[in-house]
Every structure is written in C-alpha cells, then in structure tokens.
Amino acid sequence: MTDSRSFNKQVLEGTYKDYAITALIGLLLTALTSYQLDVTKNMTDELVALASPRTALLLLAELFALLICAALLRLYQQYRQNGIQLRVQGNLDRILAFSIEPVTISRTETPGFKNDLNVVRFSFQSLAGLYLTFMQITVAVVSIGTYMILIFKHVWYLPFVILLLNAPKWHQERRTARDRFVFAVRTSEVAREKTLLQELLFNPATFSEQLVFASKLFIMRKWRRAYAENMKQELRFNRLETIRKMGYSCIAVIAQIAVQFLLIVGVIQHSITLGAYISVIAATGVLEASLLSLASYAGQLHHYKLTKKKVIGFLNEYLSEQSKKDEPMLFQQRLRTIELRNLIFAYPGRDWPTIRQVSLQIRLGDSIVLVGDNGCGKSTLAKLIAGLHEVDAGMIFYNGADTNRLERRQIYKKVSIVTQDYINYPFSIYECVTMSADPDDARYEAIRKRYPYLFPEGMDKHSIVGLDRTGATQLSGGQWQKLAIARALYKDSPVLILDEATSALDPETEKRFFHDLMTERSTKALIAITHRMNVCPLFSKSVVLQEGRIVEQGHHDELLQLNGKYSRMFEAYTMEGVRSKYGSVPTVV
Ligand SMILES: Nc1ncnc2c1ncn2[C@@H]1O[C@H](COP(=O)(O)OP(=O)(O)OP(=O)(O)O)[C@@H](O)[C@H]1O
Q1: Which of 307, 381, 553, 578 is deepest in the core (most CB within 10 A)?
Q2: Ligand 1, atom 17: closest residue by C-alpha
Q3: Residue 258 above 60 pLDDT?
Q4: Cβ burial, residue 463 (10 Å; 0-12/13-18/19+)
C-alpha cells in the first residue's frame, strides 16, 4: 500500500484498453466540437452575407453529420467509462480486503477500529470515480487548450479573462473536497450507529425478540434519533456548501455577462463577424464547462491525497504490530509445549488488566479445562494462548521461543479454535468443514466417521446451509455449533481450543464427543472452556480463574479435596450445594 506505483498498478489492472479508448474518444470529441464550431461560424457568416444559401445548407448537413458522430461517440465513451468504473471498483474492493489482514485481533476488536474502517471503506468507494478523473483531466486539459486557441484567434485577450474569472471556483472545489472528507470522518460514529440500528430493524434474526419483547418501537425510536442526528449533520454541511456556492455562482454569471459584453462590443466595432460571435460564445460555454470540471477534478485529487493518507495511517495503526518488531522467526518445528510466564494482558483502552500474572505449562497430550465465573477472563486467556492478542515480550512461549519473535501466521497454523462467536457460513456442509485447507475427501470422511454426530443427519455434504442463500437448508443452533467443531477438527492442528464450543449440544452428544476426543489426546494439547462442570473429570487438569488470576489448578479429584472455589462450583453445578445451602426447592402448587 505504501508503494504508490504498485498500488496504482493493482487498481488499474484490466482497465488499460478501456482507458486508452475513452481517452482517444475524448480527444476525438474535442476535435469534433472544435470543428463543429468552425462550421457553425462559416454557416452563420454565409447566411448573414446571403451570398450562397446552398453552401449554408451544405454546411448544415455537415453539422448534422458531426453532431450524430459526436452523440454516438459520447454514448460509446460512457459505456467504456462504466466498464472502467466497475473494474476499478472491483480491484479496490479486492485490495482493501487483502490489506485488512491483522496480525492479531487486539486492536481490531475495538469500536475505534470499526469506526476507522468505516471511513476507509467510504474513501475507497469514492476512489473508483477518482481513477476515471486522472484520464478526464488529460482530456479536459487538451479540450481547454483547443478552445482557448479557438477563442484566442478571434478575441486574443478573452481566454485570459475567462481563466481569471474561473479561478475562485478552483479554490472552492478544493475546499469542498477537504471539508467533505473531514465531515465524513467527524460524522462516521453517528452514521455507523444509524446503520447498526437499521440492521437491527431489518435483520430477520431479530424479529422473534422484537415480537416477544415488543421492542420494535424502542429500537425505532433510537434509530430515528440517530437518523435525525445524521440528517441534521448532512443538512448543515449541505447548507454551508450551498451558501459558499452562491457566491461563486454569482461570479460565474458576472463572467458570462462580461464575456458577452466584450463580444458584442467586438461585433458593433466590426472587429469580429456574427459567425465568430456565435462560435466564440459556444466555445466559451464549453471552455467554462471544461474549466469547472477541471476544478472539480482538482478537488477530487485533493480528496485522493487525504484518502491515501488516511488509509496508510489506518493500516499502520491497526494492522502492523509485527512489523514494529525484529524480523520474525519461522516456526516450523513440531509443537511440544506452550508456556505462559507471569502473563499480564489488558485490552486496548482499558486501565486494568483482564489477565493477571498467569503462569501455565501446556504440553502435547495435556487436556486442560478452564473454569470460572462470567467475565473472569477464560476466553481472553484462550485467545492469548492461540496467539490472537498482542502481549509484551517474555510472556508466551511456544517450544521455549517467545511468540513475539515468531511469525504469527506460523503460530496460527498450530492452533484450531472454536470461539463463542463462530461464524455460520452460507456454504455447503463440505465447504464449511474443509475451508481451512485444500479440500481432502479422505480427511473429511475420516472426521465424519469418527464423529458422525457432528454432521447434520440425512443431509448431503454438498447441501448449502444458512439463511443468507436462496434454497439453502436451515440448521439448528446446535447443528451450527457441531459444524464449527468439525471445522476445527478437520484442521488437525496440535492445539485445539474449544471455548464453550459444546454449550448448544445436548448432554449425551457432549459427553460422547469429549469421550471420543480424549482418545486423540496423545497427539494434541486440548484446552476447553466450559460452565458444564460434569465434563471436568474427563480432563487431565482443571484450571480455575478468578478475576484474571489462576486461583486453583489440578485434577478434578484433587481440586474437590481442596474444598475451595472449584469444589463450590462443582457442587453448585450438580445441585448438591444448592440443596444443602438453600434447603429443598418449594413445590409449585
Ligand atoms: N474485545 C474486548 N475489549 C475490551 N474488553 C473486553 C473484550 N473482550 C472481553 N473483554 C473484557 O474482558 C473481561 C473478560 O472477558 P472474557 O470474555 O475473557 O470472560 P469469560 O471468563 O470468558 O466470560 P464468560 O464465562 O462470560 O464467557 C470482561 O470484563 C470483558 O468485558
């Protein structure tokens, strides 16, 4: 992205032919229009002189042919320009999608990122038009030159008068472009809120809650407020722009009248013919239009400069953690151990750490279950183990090597994770499972045989699932979750992290799954997070977290003996504690 030439090359990929044709037509049109003005002048002079009406009629026929040619060429040029715009838009989308490749998720999981991403996407959308601008500028410059010469031939000083009178417009366009950009950045938060609320109103997944909680009006009120605020900002901006434009529009009218006046004086003093008068007036109109479009292109170029700065700033701020460190080492060995040493982690923008002084050794063959109250940091710890968050040096080690010195993508190759917010992909079942690697039928079938209950019963592997595709089959919450687990298993990495990944499974399937998984344990390090304490005895170690610290760790039986936090949690889960502490549950009569 920082390399401007390669960026432009990528954006313009596949458009060169269209550009060349469009530019050529632009130049041809300029030549045609200029010739057409000459014909108009000659025709008028012939008519005024009434010397040869036949010549005038021939000139009219010539004019007709010229106009038809110009109209057809303009249509064809428009068609080619649309092609350029579509291709450039596609290329830009591809570049943006490729560029947004964070090294970790620490900074991308913040509202600030979402806001800035919004602005960058807006800027990228407007870039598509800008790439057309580059070519249009060339054509505009040529056409301005042509018309200036044409006018110069009749009234030498007029082109300079026109240039002078159009100068304020240039200033205005540059200013408008800058203000529009600043405005988009400033109002992005409100615009995003409006879109978020709108999504809530139109998303079918929210309808059941809207019905049961009668929340539609509540959401609508919030949406209308955000809408009104957004509209107020837009209108205020448009009002200021219109007021500013009024001044410049008056100057433009003065310019027109001034030019007319000078020409009329020329005709009265017989320094120009009536034909020249008509031709110069027409040329002035085209020249002014070209100057105005050049002014607006100048504004757009300014916008381009601002956009580029914003995009590079965005990529540097959020997506380049690794590049700030030393040259990362490749990590291609077989993973044997993961070690956390006095790990401390605070989310960006938070003053207090979520994970505090956590030390833990995980070896291949270990099966560890993390338990603790809501919000104690289990998911955060799981993501830290997977290398998904940025941490200070000397805290997380893979095979004894500091993960900060390792190439992150190599780390991710060793890890499979099912988080609580796994994605319901609108793909076929086979694709949902195999997307992490090249599809391999044998590997897919092996997983399906080993864990048949993870695959929706009676469905073909090529069936498309999800609400987002027409004709797709809908799955239940548990079925989606099972597919997410199958995807993680298919990846077959040495570390498997399951963050409440079985929460939607029925108890029998859950137990069967963990039982089957344990038989694969020798080749994997398994880390699970669960609130269902009945599966804990299956794991080699339970780790209890409280406010970001490990307060107890050991096998289930050892921890029960401690009579501490773990034993209280287990009792509460099995209802033993509830009965003894709160007495019997009253019967409903
Ligand atoms: N992206 C984030 N940005 C800022 N704070 C976060 C983020 N994600 C989680 N937190 C905060 O970190 C703390 C721990 O969250 P975490 O999700 O790790 O808890 P948990 O133990 O997994 O909880 P639960 O059992 O409810 O899933 C919470 O206070 C939460 O608000």
Answers
A1: 381
A2: 379
A3: yes
A4: middle
Q: Residues 450, 516: contact at Cβ < 8 Å?
A: yes
Element (H or E) spanning 350, and its range?
Answer: none
- CB neighbours of residue 278 within 10 Å: 17
Q: Which of 34-43, 316-325, 556-565 has the lowest mean pLDDT?
A: 316-325
Phi and psi for 545 in degrees, rounded to 5?
-105, 145
Contacts 24+ apart (CB under 8 A), 503-509: 503/420, 503/530, 503/531, 503/532, 504/477, 504/478, 504/480, 505/478, 505/481, 506/478, 507/532, 507/534, 509/453, 509/478, 509/482
Taken as a whole, the chain contains a residue count of: 589
Angstrom distance (rounded) from CA 250 to CA 365: 81
Q: Using one digit for the tens of pLDDT, what is the confidence trace for 448-506?
A: 999 999 999 888 898 888 877 777 888 998 999 999 999 999 999 999 999 999 998 98
> Which of 268, 267, 269, 287 has the alpha carbon at shortest distance from 278?
267
- DSSP secondary-structure letter at 464? B
Residue ranges in 269-376 assigned as alpha helix (H): 274-319
Two tokens at 490?
Answer: 């298919």
Centroid of ligand 1 to alpha carbon of 215 (angstroms): 27
Tokens of 481: 């979750």
pLDDT in tens, 388-436: 998 998 999 999 999 988 888 889 999 999 999 899 999 999 999 999 8
Tokens, residue 460: 């073909």
Where does 4-320 sit in CATH, by number?
1.20.1560.10
Q: Ligand 1, atom 4: nearest CA belongs to which residue? A: 347
Kindly state the helix (H) or strand (E) to which residue 370 belongs, with its residue range: strand 367-372
Domain with CATH 3.40.50.300 in the chain: 331-414+531-579
What is the distance between the terminal CA atoms of the chain, rounded to a whole angstrom? 71
Q: Write down the CATH superfamily of domain 331-414+531-579.
A: P-loop containing nucleotide triphosphate hydrolases (3.40.50.300)
For residue 380, how far is its CA from the centre of ligand 1 (angstroms)?
6
What residue's CA is closest to ligand 1, atom 1?
Answer: 109
Ligand 1 surroundings by CB, under 6 angstroms = 109, 347, 350, 354, 372, 374-380
Query: Position of tokens 């830290």?
Result: 384
Q: Tell me the Cα Rg of the chain.
A: 35
Return the HEC string of 27-75.
HHHHHHHHHHHHHHHHHHHHHHHCCCHHHHHHHHHHHHHHHHHHHHHHH
Place of tokens 């897919």: 444
Q: How many beta carbons lie within 10 A of that of residue 348, not counting itself?
A: 13
| Predicted ipTM of the assembly | 0.98
